[in-house]
Please model this.
Amino acid sequence: MKLHPLDRKLLRDLWRLRGQVLAIGLVIASGVGLLVMSLTSLEALRDTSAAYYERYRFADVFAQVKRAPESLASRIAAIDGVQTVETRVVRSAVLDVGGFDEPVMGQLVSVPENGEPLLNRLALRAGRYPESGKPDEVVLSEPFALAHKLGPGDHLRAVMSGRWRNLVVVGVALSPEYVYTMGPGALMPDDLRYGVLWMGRETLQAAYDLDGAFNDVSASLLRGAKPEQVVDEMDRLLDRYGSHGAYVRADQASNWFLSNEIDQLETMARFLPSVFLAVAAFLTNMVVARLVAVERPEIGLLKAFGYGNAAIAWHYVKLVLVIGAVGTLLGWFFGYWLGLYSTTMYADFYRFPFLLFRPNVGPFLLAAGASVGAALLGAIGAVRRAAALSPAAAMQPPAPPLFRRNRLFLPRFFERLDQPTRIVLRQTSRWPLRSIVTSLGIAMSVAVLIVSMQWLDAIHRIVDVYFLQAQGQDVTVGLVEARSSAAVRELARMPGVLAVEPMRTVAAKLRSGPRVVRDAVQGVPAHQTLYRVYDAQGTALDLPPEGLVISTVLADRLAVRPGDTITVEVLEGRRPVLELPVAATFETYIGRPAYIDIDALNRAMHEPPSVTAVHLRVDPKFETRLYRELKQMPQVSAVNLRSAAVTTFNETMAKTMLIYVGFFIVFAATLACGVTYNAARIALAERARELATMRVLGFSRREVEYILIGEIGLLTFAALPLGAGIGWLLARWLVRAFQTELYRVPFVLEPSTFGWAILGGFLATLASVLLVRRRLDRLDLIAVLKTRE
Amino acid sequence: MAAPGTQRPVLRARDLGKVYRTGEVEVHALRGVDLELWPGEMVVLLGPSGSGKSTLLNILGGLDSATSGEAWFEDHDLTRQDDRDLTRYRREHVGFVFQFYNLISSLTALENVALVTEIATRPMEPEAALRLVGLGERLHHFPAQLSGGEQQRVAIARAIAKQPDVLLCDEPTGALDSQTGVLVLEAIERIHRELGTTTVLITHNAVIADMADRVLVLGDGRIQQERRNPQRRPARELAW
Model:
């Protein structure tokens, strides 16, 4: 096939400009890659969780009760809109897994004696369901089984109703209900210390004295049913059976975490790719404008030969399209790979039994359209100028640019500058828009670096405030149900226990006008020494003798301020309805806690002093003995170790957040290099003649480099603080956008983060300038001087 | 003008050769040129395109290296000097004027001259240099605000402001009409007269040869003819 000469020219131009084409391509690829990654993994997460929920019949409404008769099930099923009802027995228990000293908590969940559950089915990964009449058979949740290397045939023990039971594993499974498997009081899944065990219903009913009764119910709804109405109806039915209130899928813990994650991903998909695509548009504009300027005579010649404006415009549009295509293809490739990688990571983290990574063409087309569109938009001005030149004008050299004596700088100051410095300053101020945009490009890369690294500062701060400063306990022991404060004294006498502190948690509905929030009210001593009420600023708060101290998130949800009164409908014990004043609000990073003086709580409950959890400080020498004895205590339902919580928090962050931070750092570096390399190449192309002249006049290489590097350096110098400022603003904005009910990422920017980001921007500039400097050294003095501009 | 024999030459070349290789093609730009330039002399190099006159000038000016032979500035062998030495040689001893002016567009006339005087060892005042070429009134104009002839005169002022030992002009009137060209030649003539700078002027315009002390005609990489003008014609009398 014979190529049209113009197309051959196009190919040669592309080859000649390959460095710049690649630099722009990489920036476009970053934007496309991020967009494709975000959108495909967003889509995959949504598809996978939706399919998972559907296939394994994840329920729509949930409720826990103390004990309700089985006959209630048919009345729930009769509620308008309910499709299927499943009742279960669910209890937590202390487990003993061979070879693991620390206490392990288990959630025991009943499955029907015959056949599969109707709702919340298991995705069996190995083995089978427990057989009817074999009370010691259990199915383990897969993460837990993997963490302890347990499989069918292996044994473990559980304390059920105060007695150790030997259990045999017959299966390993995943469940849509436990996508995010988290123990009570934990912040992150800890597969070593928390697991789900599915057992025959009769076994659990017998163990917990729930014959002919259930303590957990879930229901699926008919299409079009109103979940809130069903919840109200269920509450009406379950109220007197000790219900803590029914709730919809959106409030189910595992699903709630998953939705939070998906929301964050969506924020990212909206924000970051746009930054890269905007910069790519600007770079394409710069390069194409320069190319057209250089090719004026050729354009004139082509027009003199009879090529029309459309043909010439199309020629340059093709150039832009090729650059856009290079970036898009690279971006597709990276984006697909990153999307698959991050989805696999999520699937692994959330334990989906399958993964639906079937990216639509949608995200790819959207990314391609956006990036090629951005590139074309960037080039449109230059191409129009090329097409608009008259042949005669095009073949003339362009008039030298008109400079004016500066008004920008103080004349006195300017008088004292040497000529090369004046050249740098005049060049920079002659095309202010271009200088500003170049500076802005570099600044954006610094800003992206700051935004990325801000997460590290934030995580560091969360760990520091939440785990290290606020929490003084080593172990928190959860009790099966509220116990008298004798339990505190009993724990205080155990081996190695140095200090104890009681806590009482009650489930409640908090109401203020029409606003209702289901939450726990935590009673702690007015002045805490172990588990401290800490605000985001790192101040410990003492509780007033009466009234609630609530997190600002909760205050916002209820639209209350200090001094207002909240109606607290306690969902346990005698179920009192309390009117409690809001004494104070405080900022938190995690959750939306509400605290009250434990004595005030007990008084309000009309109960003698009682506790649901005890915080302990422990002498490390006695840890193993303490754990062994805690496992023997039937009233203990949970044992949380602070050190383990910190470890899992950090590990989870390392697995998810830090990998993204790494990606962004690479992207930001690409951005900085793309901008500075192109700016330096264009500056070199435009100044080649003047720089060669200066070499002829007797300036050394280094003195000439000063002019080229000085210009980029000046723009970089302006860009670095600008980038720090933009980064600060973006980080603040992004922190707000990323706010979920679960987390408020603190807005923390350590000085070192600015330092690293600025260093990163500087190094990227330096690298590009050094690359271009090599070209400067090869300037052909004679050829440059002999040719006309 | 000093007479040959009483002084040492400023520049001399012995059997100077230059071969350009582009791909498989070899171009012999210079084939053994012998030459001496004396202090205060004005020499015109005449010859058609491709005769080697620019190559000779570039080697003498330290812009290019010879393939064979020697080129001496006073007692420095230019053919043995590295880039750093040649840069210093150009900086301290040589003034260049080119066909296409090569002014820095972002600097005013005065600043273009100051660009050179700032790095020279014994420069004259930039204003004085511009007055010498008749541009005392246009000190603060940028190149884009000057005519072609004016731009070339700024280039001449820039070349001589360092008070160079040699002034090398490559087709200084090539891009100008004859009237403007004469103005530029007058400027060169005045510099030569007042400063006594050894001046080499390349042209393919035979008329201009009349203003020289000596005329060297190049062809095919060799000096084919050398003649001495009994009387130099003033530039203002030239016309083409």
About this structure: The mean pLDDT of chain A is 84. Chain A touches chain B at residues 399-405, 418-420, 422-423, 426-427, 430, 689-690, 693-701, 703, 781-782, 785-789 (CB under 8 Å). Residues 253-294 of chain A form the longest helix (42 residues). Residues 80 and 479 of chain A are 37 Å apart (CA to CA).
